[in-house]
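Q: Here's a chain of 232 amino acids. Please give me its 3D structure as tokens.
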Amino acid sequence: MNKLEKPAEVIINKCINLKPADKMLIIYDKTTKDIAEELFKKASEKSEVVMIKIKPTGRHGAEPSREIAYLMKKFDVVIIPTKYSLTHTKARQNATKKGTRVITMPSITNKIFEKTIDIDYKKLREEIKKLGKEMKKAKIIKIKSINGTDFIFNNESKRVKEDDNGLFLKKGSYGNLPAGEVYTAPIEKTGKGVVVIDSMEKLCKPRTKLLIKKGLVQEVEGDEEFRKKFGT
């Protein structure tokens, strides 16, 4: 068994529980060929599957072609392992409104696929609920990292969201794999401290440092072009 076979099997048999009557579409690009092929192989054992290669859209949230958007509405299940996310697109929204189950896998790599899909999804939900509960109780949240991030903000609005799914069994359900996330955003004008960016694709250099006061970037260190965008 190759390293991609087991996680592909988990997605087909557990995360979507593919049935013989389900028609499935796999949308992939040049960065995810191995993953797409393994998903196709496993899905083909159970159902009718179509696999389509697209060009990378260039950024997260960019719409796919009209042809791809149309096709997404014509299948029961659509899995999208691509470099750039199609999660928050009109194409995805229109597909799920029609009842299509859409599973997006933005920026997925073979290594991430191998290590994060074959997990205990019941335990994942338990851990996410536990962490979410603690975050919702917190009035102040502080984030620190070994790279230098030291950021604090007000959380009194309790805008904490949880992604504890990983299973997409109902019509119109959608989400990302791998799953598992608790997230929030600072109350406006309360964030202060230092944020060090580890990675932001082509938008700025790694280790760019943002100095923040009252929720606004005051200074940018490490990337002159990125600094100009903030007018600092």
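Q: Can you summarize the key feature?
A: Residues 5-116 form a domain with the Thermophilic metalloprotease-like fold (CATH 3.40.1830.10).
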